[in-house]
Protein 1
Amino acid sequence: MVVFSIKVRGSQSAEELVSVLALYLKGPSNIISLNASQLEFLTSPVQSKKSMGKERADSNSALKIRASTAKIVELDENGESLEIDDEVQEKASTQDHELKLDPSHYWIIAFNTTWSGPCRYFEAVMARCSINYERKDVHFAKIDMDMFLEGDSIAERFGISLAATTIDLPTLILFKNGKPLKRLPLKLQTKVGGEVLGKVGWDRSEGSVVSAFELAKLGTGKESTHKEDIMEHHEASVQSQTQEEEGLYSKTTSAMGTQSAPCVSTTPDTPVSTSGGETAPSTASESASETDDPSSQAKYTKNVQEEEPGSAEGGTTAVPPPTLNGEPGSQLVNMVGDKSVRSDISLRVLQQLYLPDQSNAYRKLNHEDMTLSYFHSPSFPAVRAITNHERKRILVTGGAGFVGSHLVDRLMLMGHEVIVLDNFFTGNKRNVQHWMGHPHFELIRHDVVDPFMIEVDQIYHLACPASPPHYQYNPIKTVKTSVMGTINMLGLAKRTKARFLLTSTSEVYGDPEEHPQKETYWGHVNPIGPRACYDEGKRVAETLTYSYMHQDEVDVRVARIFNTFGPRMNENDGRVVSNFIMQALRGDELTIYGDGQQTRSFQYIHDLVDGLILLMNKNYKDPVNLGNPEEYTIREFAEMIRSEINANVDIMSLPPTEDDPQRRRPDIGRAKRHLGWAPKFSVHQGIRETVQYFKNNKMEQSWYAT
Ligand SMILES: O=C(O)[C@H]1O[C@H](OP(=O)(O)OP(=O)(O)OC[C@H]2O[C@@H](n3ccc(=O)[nH]c3=O)[C@H](O)[C@@H]2O)[C@H](O)[C@@H](O)[C@@H]1O
């Protein structure tokens, strides 16, 4: 039996790939396409034989899948799909079910996900099954569309035969010791309704790569009848390497068994995306954050696109026109769609969506013709090269939000692998757009209220709306996010032995009677007021965190974050900094709630990120305040913003908000003592950068707000 676990993006490519593999295997196969969300539902008899008793042990060949959207495809000996009873398919997609791991079948499990968690989990399950039940006939093939590093596999740890392959459609990139060795064109060819529906091939000379063909042999001991195909393709791929150097390769894909017309296009080659890049100028630098390791205080160079990307027409000059049937000189198709339904659009514009161009990650709204253009860079900001041993796999919940995205930037630049979970309620993909596609980065839409499984070393748990209008918008959801989200993440930390950092808030002190606020202060919170969903939610989150520490020995950290501001705040966030800046930029009156005598202390985002990373990496477990003690009344703050922007606007008073804390200023003695941390940015410097950010984004953001 050969088990393929395939990690891909998009169910279509999963199905295409497994179909092609099935053809090679030329035997009865079962194909299951799973979505990432099904991870936690994927269970199997992983207990030891002893603990399970005979009855359960007999079910060793069953894989239980509670799959809400699992799709099952069965193929006959010729690789033709068998009709699956509607009822069975319906049942598979709506109910838990058990799949018999019939050893005479190949099992191809396609994980439709950008996240390696399900694959790893599945491999572990399978490995345990095969060890517990002495199933020597289980072999693993792992195909990871993003990146797969040799040896980085649970299956391998269990000593199971493993074929390590990395495929990055439409090219195959071979990795050795984490470094891309070379890229080869991967051809998927389809004949409509024909006998040979697919071809897949890759260079096997690297040793680490075992073809599906060889796997078929491993699984069945039989010679494949497709050796010639493979050899032929091998030669073809060597030939096309030369073409690749010239910057071209061709790709044809089609779903197996469907009568779809072949689609042929020519795309430019792109360099393997690793650190740095030849095309993007290196113009800015960012200093590393402090960690326990003084050597980490290096400077990172960040590639920033200087050139303003042009309009849709001007920004993609690197994209060559398509050729029909791959033959240069054929008539070019340059428009698609139909004017009558206004679906007509230039192919060139569409190509920007799926073909990488030469400009850096960037987005531009053209107000003249109201088009929105996204640009993508072939190069990423350079990240520090660290060893596999040093590199941590870090989960950041809420990583697409204001604070989260800055934390992600820093962790990425530090050279770590970062996985972002976000439900995008207040977070935004644009905040992390510049990392999308980077081999160290994964972005997953997931609500922490639902359980989530992954293997990580550290968890920064930020997910929760933080602005009062946002968290009061749906208070029940806010409480659920704080409570259930934190339970889920603590459960994950417990299982994986990851270190867990909770981002709590100064709001746990409520409307404080002690000033400035020390961590030892218990707070003054109205448990039934409009802010309670957030304040009490975070207080329970802290309680949970320390309960898991005491009861289950989870390694925890708690940061109590005071008012923070900076670029990537949403202009409609509702918090005072973004409100005042946007009001002043628009020439509107600044709105003060109440008499403006209430105080706040504002810290700049980079200081907070420094503090969070320090806290995570130091050995201090009690709550720590992170904030800038520079305290302003809200009226003083309004005046400061007005003069920074040089805006000739009035300040107006609005009714006070209920339970608004009257004084807030952190005592940061603990952070100084235990983390060696103190804010470095003056509020003025931070405000200047933030104003610049809002100015740059003003036109576009205002349009979005409508
Ligand atoms: O900025 C933050 O990081 C914090 O923001 C909020 O706490 P809050 O201090 O109420 O934040 P704002 O909504 O920015 O309000 C600050 C003060 O400005 C006042 N304000 C706000 C907005 C406005 O337009 N005018 C105005 O006078 C508020 O009434 C309040 O007194 C969140 O509750 C915290 O979790 C979060 O850490």
Note: Residues 306-375 form one domain.
Protein 2
Amino acid sequence: SEPNTAPEQSQTAEPNRISEQHKLTQQLAAAEAIRSSQPVRFSELLSELEAERSSLSNEQKHYLDYLQGYQLSFTGKLELGLEKYKQLIGSDASPLLQYRANLAIVNNLAVTRDWPQGLTHLALALEALPNISDEAMRQNGLVVAAIFYNQLGQYELGLKYASRLENTATAGRTLCFAKQLKLEARFNLHSLETDSPEIQDGIKVCEQQGEAVLSNFIRIHLANVYLKSADSQSALILLTPHLAEVEATHYPRLIAEFYSVMARAHWALQQPELAEHYALKALELGKSLDATQPIVQVYETLYQIALQRNDYQTALDYHIKFAEADKAYLDETKTKFLAYQLAQHQSIEQQSKISLLDKQNNLLRLEQQLASAEAENNRLFIALLILCVTALLVLIYRAGRTHKRLRTLAEYDALTGVYNRGHCTQLATASLDYCRNSSQEISCILLDLDNFKAINDNYGHACGDWVLKKVASVCMASTRKNDIFARLGGEEFFLLLPGCDLDRAMALAERLRAGLAAIDTADSGFSFAISASLGVTGSALSGFELEQLIADADTGMYHAKKSGRDRVSLYSSELREQEQRQHQAAMASQDEFSAA
Ligand SMILES: Nc1nc2c(ncn2[C@@H]2O[C@H](COP(=O)(O)OP(=O)(O)OP(=O)(O)O)[C@@H](O)[C@H]2O)c(=O)[nH]1
């Protein structure tokens, strides 16, 4: 509530909280360190930590649960212990703690002989193993795997994990464990000889570590190999000196097995009293053990002893017990084998499901690749199509332009841009036909520039061209939509006027003449006068034939030239006759001149 003090409080609260957490982690680790050596103190520590549960972090709570699971299992409450461990699996506990919980479960289930579940949790732990960086924890996983597989009778796997453990073991005790587990597996795989050097090596390493239980288990393996090779004497020489040491371990399983082997050795050496002595001792301890091979062998030995003594009743009793134990042992072996087969089968099933899923995934991936390849192809195809269409359009456009240019060249005069003679003939013929059919008048004007040669000569050909273009544009400006204006050639222009009578044609010709005469030549760079002579005719005078119309207009134009140029002349039949007469006269004088 007081803003000034709040930040100060949080600054000091944070380090306090961290040191408190650190203390709790240390307490948890301390508890774990004494879990098997000081069970009472361990239990007290756990109670203290449980009282502080609310102050624990999430992971610390999980760690406490794990230790409580251990305590429950250690005190024989296996089911409750299992429950605690199982809660950790799949929780948000760290992967290391989950791995450890799986290993603890495997140990518990080995005790209760729940092989199928044990295999499931072992598989989970082994799956996590490659990601466990803590070396001691890794080795612990290998120990559990090797013990479990050996117990299950899967000695190949026991050997595999024991060998891995041997190769990585950092502590002498772990190395002793590894060597004992390896030898146990090899004994059961029948790959041990009496002189296998690993046996003496294993015994030596375990003795150095003060691991009497493990060194003597190795001796039992060796003694069994001696018995198999009918060297019972060596078996006894090996075991007898360590009898007291073995009894001092108070480990029933070891002691019972030790006695069992000794009983068989003495029996093989024809020492029935000693054999019976150790067999009965083994049996006494072995009662608490489930059906194991040593117990089966003890009953067999006792049966054989009674039989030799002709004590048939006892022999029968032992034989019945032998048969029962043997059956129980075989049943147990079968159960283990089936559990392993089932786990294998499930794992194969799982694998095939995974590979099926992989195949389906691959198929989907391929389908996706195919779809994207198709899409890519479509894109390429569309791009190609666009390219082709564009190229085609360009070609069409160019062809159109060429066509237009060719048509322009074919139809228009290159210099002035007005119709040329050829196209004019086409258009004029159609127009004349139309007027004739529709009984309309049609007129025409033929225009020839005066003294154009002199313009060329005096001011150059370029200036002559300028004049031609200027004349064309002035004339074009005076034409109507249906009029046809063309350059027939040189300095001669033709204008066809559909629907136009002679009066209006004459008027237009006059306007053209005046327009040309008014051209200002300054733009050409020279100053000179432009004039033209124009001949006019029409359908009323010359009919509807183009050639006739042009010829008559030419007669009119010729007359205008002769009359002094720069004027307009209307064609008439008199003019033609006059022209013919003049022509004839000219021809006659030509003849006279030739004759002279
Ligand atoms: N600059 C130029 N001159 C041309 C073109 N076509 C024809 N000519 C010239 O036009 C001149 C026509 O001369 P002529 O037929 O003697 O006629 P004119 O000099 O106009 O004399 P009249 O018609 O009797 O008045 C020739 O010198 C041709 O070379 C052209 O396209 N450009």
Note: The first strand starts at residue 442 and ends at 449.
